[in-house]
Amino acid sequence: MKTRVAVDPLTRIEGHLSVEATVEDGAVVEARSSATLFRGFEQILVGRDPLDAVQITQRFCGVCPTAHAVASSQCLENAFGIMPPDNGRIIRNLIQGANYIQSHILHFYHLASLDFVRGPDFPPFIPRYEADYRLPKAASDAIVSHYVDALHIRLKAHEMSAVFSGKMPHCASVVPGGVTVTPAVDKVTTFLWRLKELREFITNVYVPDVLTIAEVYRDYGEIGAGCKTFLSYGAFDLDNEPDVQKRKRFFPMARSLGGKLATVDPGKITEDVSRSWYGSSTHLAPSAGETAQDSAKKDAYTWVKAPRYDNGVYEVGPLARATIARMTDASSIHSKAIDDALKNLRLKPENLPSVMGRHLCRALETKALADAMADWVLQIKLDQPVATAFVIPEHGSGYGLWDASRGALGHWISIKNKRIDRYQAVVPTTWNASPRDDTGQAGAIEQALVGAPVKDPANPFSIARIVRSFDPCIACAVHLLTPSGKLLHQFRAV
Questions:
Q1: What percent of the chain clears pLDDT 70, i.e. is strictly above it?
Q2: Pairing relationship of beta strands 419-426 and 407-416 according to DSSP bridges
């Protein structure tokens, strides 16, 4: 007998998401991921000065605005034909690195850990599903106490970012051509001091807490695998190569397909909208993308579009970056840390595509990145420029490809008469939480839910655990509204 299970809304994520699953014989056989929030940014940008894009696109999200600042700046640099100098590149990396750290710590402690740790019986620890909480009381109590500690650590990460970004969220100093902040000895030392505190927390608290949960919930190393194809645009530029496909990055740009490493060709990215509430043409390249709402569209069930690479479904995010890192350089510190953790947990590399695999990859990449940042900040040259001058062209186009903390982020712009003529963003959760495409292929989260054990349809905690392991951000994934405030669609939670 088939049973319909609806989780609406799915809590402890950024934005509004509902999940509907069909359960048969105690397991999910089909799932749909539906973004029920609609907003407006891409239309807001049309007709504006191109420089406005860097600030406006940061308002997609308060958790990961820095990635939009960098992707938008790189998009404009591609259109203007410029690259930032070394200082601009390094300082951007430091600002973005601080944002990665706070985002990953936020996700584990304040969004995901409560799927596995039972907190006290008062908010924000309730209401909750009554899941199979297995940790010994001492370990559980320690992680709950770290929930509070992590709030202070996130503040320190924001303070560290603000040394060079001016403020957080929504940094003020990232611009096309580099940054506007002037480096000084006091800024470098302040950044290093904050980074030291963060590295101690990551090494001594965050990573051990993830390993503690992973040891007890080893079965979740075999749940939520998903599509097992991975895409990363890469992040943290290590040189000033103008061609993004040739640029060296700390996290490399690549795909993993069928267990083999492959390159990324931006020309093969499209977005299908056959199951999305848009009346625009389907299977368009982002550079030709449209955002025309159709809330009454037949067979549609989400405001998220369906990005595809060469018609294929891809997962993006820390798991994708870890998979690609291991295939690119198995001897790197990042790759070895992943292999050592798998060995200690008695898991195999094929267990990485899973709920526990995603949490593990997120924690270990945080450590690898924080350690690298300690070297990057010392590479700043106080007497060197931080930005490259530019002239806005009369006409032009460009794109910026960059990995946000949640995965592959792309911005595309076309300029006409020195104004934005078209702007499109394809964000990480658009990849992961995409609906079925024109050929009926389910998105990454929808595929990951198939096979999930659901013993009690009234308490489907495994579904929540799988979806949250992706760290979805629906606020970034949908960008539609009517300025008049007209009601487009009405939803009823069941």
A1: 95
A2: antiparallel
Element (H, E) at 104: helix 86-105
Please state which CATH class domain 2-477 belongs to.
Answer: mainly alpha
pTM of the model as a whole: 0.94
Nearest to 199 by CA among 210, 191, 189: 191
- CA distance readout (Å), 365 to 23, 420, 460, 491: 34, 36, 30, 38
Q: How far apart are CA 110 and CA 120, in angstroms?
A: 14
CA end-to-end span of the chain: 20
Which of 416, 323, 421, 369 lies closest to 104 in space, CA to CA?
Answer: 369
Q: Which residues of 31-56 are buried (b: 16+ CB within 10 A; e: fewer)?
A: bbbbbbbbbebbbbbeeeebbbbbbb
Segments of the chain with pLDDT less than 70: 39-40, 475-494
Calculate the alpha carbon distances from 263 to 398, 402, 431, 477 in Å: 20, 15, 18, 25
- φ and ψ of 295, to 5 deg: -70, -15
- Look up residue 469 and give its two tokens: 């392991």
- 280-336 confidence digits (pLDDT tens): 899 999 999 988 889 899 999 999 999 999 999 999 999 999 999 999 999 998 999
> What are the structural domain ranges in the chain?
2-477
